[in-house]
Design goal:
The complex is a heterodimer of chains A (513) and B (451). Chain A is mainly alpha-helical and 513 residues long. Chain A contains 26 helices and no strands. Helices cover 27% and strands 27% of the residues of chain B. In chain B, a hairpin with a 2-residue loop joins strand 21 and strand 22. The longest helix of chain B has 19 residues. Chain B is globular and about 75 Å long. The N and C termini of chain B lie far apart (65 Å). The chains are: A mainly alpha (513), B alpha+beta (451).
Chain lengths: 513, 451
């Protein structure tokens, strides 16, 4: 030991009897503080030798584990083969206890996995499954020159470690990656489940219970990849219906989107009960992510088309989106309701009008986003959704543009400015005459054709634009020198282009007139 | 669905119990209750300052006769969450009295997430037997002892929260809209972090750049991250905070979401880097000599009341309201008193720890006592000199305000309570006054240093 011949120590230590071990131990203990304070290169092998000798002379399992995990000795040398040799003559059951003691040490277990696995093999006992051991096991799976699937196939601890692997918080952050020649962990696990080496149900349950509460996006992406790799059958999807439903309120947006896909698939197959569809829709329509809300509205649309009998209930749920803060989503929900109102009962329609009345008021600060007031609010009268002759958007008060008296009557024809009461841009909230919205300061100009309309570049893509007839109406008004045109630039009327009106409830096609 | 919350080692009116039973019955609004519990557990598992993975700690549950309170602190101790389940939504045998902590582990979180909207939730706080059978498979119980920081945090929050007044009230829709505009936890970098001020404007809240009168500080808005989980069930939002003046520094505030039959309150410390445990609001009460006797007489009158009335206590104990208040602060230091901002009332809880623990474990008070014992305080003249190692600090008393020349004082200017030198001076003065009262010849601490 003094000469630092590490490799020679195990042979000497292994052959000792218990009494000799007890006799040697105090000497070794007295060495430790001396060695700890020496930092020169000569003492590194001495430390490594002391580590082996010490563990060879320990008689208690806990004490041996403590000696092995001591930081001052470990960094000098950590060869599991030598330690196993030094402990080779011990009772297998004792070796198992040392392995479990090592596994319980949080800071050491991951690094000591090679030693733990050797000890477990020697003892023939069940491997410990603490977080550290699982992480160590995962690191220890050989990936060079082979695929993960092939290495896992022969792994003796596979069935014990994989269920725990899905539970350990930090373990699965690299599940999302794959590279050429290596399809990655999800594919390996799914493949082994196909071969029957792993329980498919165990993988699905573990995966779902990690997706449900949320977590770091990297980890969640990995589990989504595992879900993709597992490629659930329709029966399996239907068996976890409740899990998909409960994912929608709080899960990460990526996970919620996947759950929504699953539910849409189930609904298409007619395997989703209305009760669950209602619960899922209530949760999804409340979420702030526009994509999820849009997807849920189209799921409701399909569901109502497929089965008219549940229109009442589903329309009530769709009306939840009237309260969404995004006006575009409110209007999408309104369009959906208007489309299906023929099949709804009178009480349901009255309820819809009531929820339209409760819809989100226009934003209090007109500086940021303004423009069209929410169309939904105009549908709040009890008779709004009833009868095919009513056209609520038409009967709503319209505020047509006024032309200031200062503007010359012929100015419009001469390419002058038609001054509107500063309609503001939905994108920026600034007035149309301000530089940001319209560089020429001539909006809406009678000389501009619809094609060359100087819209602000920040005009939202989905915001409706007036059609050529709308503009020509203003033009006529300006040419006549009239103070008011028959329609306003901000209220949809029959002049709005049919392409837009087909999806807009306030337009000519959606509102039967 | 049945939800059994395992309790471990708590205090009850009948003494210590290994697994006290507080409630067994039904809870309406199952999903909202589950979301509220998860929010409290989320706070216990989170760390908002220098995030790292921390051990999950167990929320503390108190049975207050007509309600259940679930409380927790974040890992950084800067957020205090309390869920009050009020009596009207609890339908069962009567709610017991006592305090313990419940064990929120992975299977419990999993099943709380899966709670459905239909039907009431069968809720048990304190099981019949040790095995919990509501979940599939065994429930692993990891007992995490209540950390000292929580104990100090309980003491500090009630002192801070008792200075709050309601400042704003928002409807559910406006609350959702406002809370969704706040930065998320992961996205908070640079300007998004730090304190901002909001002031009620119309139906909602408006951000201001400076503390105008009526404004509430929102220190570290990303720390309200636990609220989105319950927003779906929210009935309104109420904001509480101290009175501010234009030259106020960032202050703590409480954000209370009203849920059906419940209230979830998040109290934020004045800065993400400041835990409640170190705020130092109770040090004066701890250091004073008068309150222990008052505290004992007041504590005899407490009986797990959901709302402690100071006037009543003053009448019963024969002490003035001021002394009752000081006694309650003293009782608050081992966490025996909490403050409910929604009802503006103290409530009684009893943590299974002895009274002296908070005192013993308060680092600043301990350091001050060490200074006094080392005779480092020289009480002759003004300013008082405190000698630490090889240098001196001057502690100047100006009416109620005590200032010091140490670095800690320079950084916080009294916003986190007195420094250890000021405390040591106070302790030394008390000792000197005590000696004057008992002996004719006062022994003034001799000048000397910690060597």
């Amino acid at each position: 030991m003094r000469e630092g011949r590490e490799a020679a120590v195990p042979k000497l230590a292994g052959a000792l009897t218990d009494a000799e071990r007890r006799a040697c131990l105090p000497v070794l203990k007295s060495w430790r503080p001396i060695v700890r304070d020496r930092w020169d290169d000569r003492h590194v092998p001495v430390r490594a030798a002391l580590r082996l000798a010490g563990v060879g002379c320990r008689t208690g399992a806990a004490a041996a584990a403590q000696w092995l995990s001591a930081g001052d000795l470990r960094w000098a040398g950590d060869d599991p083969a030598l330690v196993a040799e030094a402990l080779g003559h011990r009772d297998p059951e004792w070796l198992g206890r040392v392995a479990h003691r090592l596994a319980e040490r949080r800071t050491v277990a991951e690094g000591a996995y090679p030693l733990i696995s050797r000890l477990v093999h020697a003892a023939g006992c069940e491997p410990p499954t603490t977080d550290g051991v699982v992480l160590g096991w995962k690191l220890d799976v050989p990936t060079r020159g082979t695929t993960i699937r092939d290495s896992l196939r022969d792994d003796p601890f596979l069935t014990v470690m994989v269920p725990r692997l899905l539970e350990v918080p930090e373990a699965c952050s690299d599940f999302q990656y794959s590279w050429s020649g290596e399809p990655g962990w999800p594919a390996a696990l799914a493949g082994l489940a196909e071969e029957g080496r792993l329980g498919r149900d165990m993988l699905i349950d573990g995966c779902l219970s990690r997706l449900l509460p949320g977590g770091r996006p990297g980890v969640l992406k990995g589990f989504l990849a595992l879900l993709t790799a597992l490629d659930l059958t329709e029966d399996e999807r239907a068996a976890h219906t409740l899990t998909w439903v409960r994912m929608l309120p709080d899960a990460h947006p990526l996970v919620a989107a996947r759950a929504q896909e699953m539910l849409a698939g189930l609904d298409d197959a007619g395997r989703l009960e209305t009760e669950h569809l209602v619960e899922a829709s209530e949760a999804a329509l409340f979420r702030p992510e526009k994509k999820l809300v849009r997807a849920q509205l189209s799921m409701l649309d399909k569901a109502m088309k497929r089965q008219r009998s549940r229109t009442d209930e589903l329309l009530r749920v769709a009306a939840e989106a009237f309260g969404h803060e995004e006006h575009s989503l409110q209007e999408r929900a309104l369009a959906l309701v208007v489309r299906h109102r023929k099949h709804a009962s009178g009480t349901a329609l009255a309820g819809l009008a009531a929820s339209a009345g409760r819809s989100a008021p226009p934003r209090p600060s007109p500086g940021r986003r303004c423009g069209t007031p929410p169309t939904v609010a105009r549908w709040s009268r009890p008779e709004a959704f009833r009868g095919t002759r009513t056209a609520p958007s038409r009967s709503a008060p319209c505020s047509p543009p006024t032309i200031p008296s200062g503007a010359p009557a012929g100015a419009g024809a001469a390419g002058g400015v038609l001054r509107t009461p500063s309609p503001s841009c939905p994108g920026t909230g600034r007035s149309s005459r301000q530089a940001c919205c319209c560089p020429s300061g001539t909006w809406p100009s009678p000389t501009n054709s619809a094609r060359a309309h100087p819209y602000c570049p920040r005009w939202p893509r989905r915001a409706a634009r007036p059609g050529p007839r709308h503009i020509s109406c203003w033009r006529t008004a300006a040419a006549r020198g009239a103070r008011r045109s028959s329609c306003s630039p901000w209220t949809r009327c029959s002049h709005w282009p049919p392409a837009v009106s087909s999806t807009r409830p306030g337009s000519a096609r959606a509102s039967p007139s | 669905m049945t939800l059994s919350l395992q309790t471990c080692g708590g205090a009850t009116p009948a003494g210590e119990a290994a697994h006290p039973v507080f409630f067994r019955g039904f809870r309406a609004h199952a999903q909202a209750a589950a979301a509220g519990l998860l929010a409290v557990a989320d706070v216990a598992a989170a760390r908002y300052y220098q995030p790292q993975r921390s051990a999950w700690l167990n929320p503390v549950v108190t049975g207050n006769g007509d309600r259940l309170r679930f409380e927790s602190f974040s890992g950084c101790c800067g957020v205090y969450a309390r869920l009050d389940m009020l009596g009207e939504a609890l339908d069962g045998n009567e709610t017991g009295h006592g305090t313990t902590n419940i064990d929120v582990n992975t299977p419990l979180r999993d099943s709380l997430t899966r709670v459905g909207p239909a039907g009431p939730l069968s809720l048990e706080v304190g099981p019949d037997e040790l095995t919990v059978t509501a979940f599939e498979g065994p429930v692993v119980e990891k007992k995490v002892p209540l950390p000292d920081r929580w104990l100090r945090g309980f003491a500090e929050t009630q002192v801070i929260a008792s200075g709050f007044d309601p400042r704003a009230e928002l409807s559910a829709a406006e609350a959702v809209r406002f809370l969704r505009t706040l930065p998320r936890q992961g996205a908070s970098r640079g300007a998004a972090r730090g304190a901002r001020w909001v002031v009620p404007a119309g139906r909602s809240l408006r951000a201001t750049t400076r503390p105008v009168p009526g404004a509430v500080c929102l220190p570290g808005p990303e720390r309200l991250a636990a609220l989105p989980r319950v927003l779906r069930h929210a009935e309104g939002l109420r904001v509480h905070g101290p009175a501010v003046t234009p030259d106020s520094v960032p202050a703590a505030s409480a954000w209370e979401v009203r849920l059906p039959g419940m209230r979830l309150t998040l109290t934020l410390s004045p800065d993400a880097s400041r835990g409640f445990s170190g705020e130092g609001g109770v040090l004066d009460a701890l250091a004073s000599q008068e309150s222990p006797e008052d505290a004992e007489s007041v504590s005899a009158l407490l009986a797990w009341d959901p709302a402690v009335d100071i006037a009543d206590l003053a009448a019963q104990s024969g002490l003035g309201p001021q002394r009752v208040r000081a006694a309650l602060t003293r009782l608050g230091t081992p966490g025996r008193i909490g403050y409910d901002t929604a009802e503006a009332a103290y409530f009684h809880r009893e943590l299974p720890y002895d009274t002296g623990r908070a005192e013993r474990h308060n680092p600043r008070l301990r350091a001050a006592q060490a200074l006094v014992e080392a005779r480092a305080v020289c009480l002759d003249g003004e300013p008082v000199t405190v000698t630490v190692d090889d240098h001196h600090h001057r502690v100047r008393t100006d009416g109620q305000r005590v200032t010091c020349t140490c670095r800690w004082w320079a950084e916080h200017r009294g916003s986190r309570g007195p420094c250890k030198h000021a405390l040591a001076v106070r302790l030394a003065r008390q000792a000197a006054a005590g000696r004057t009262a008992t002996a004719p010849n006062p022994a003034v601490a001799s000048p000397g240093g910690l060597r």
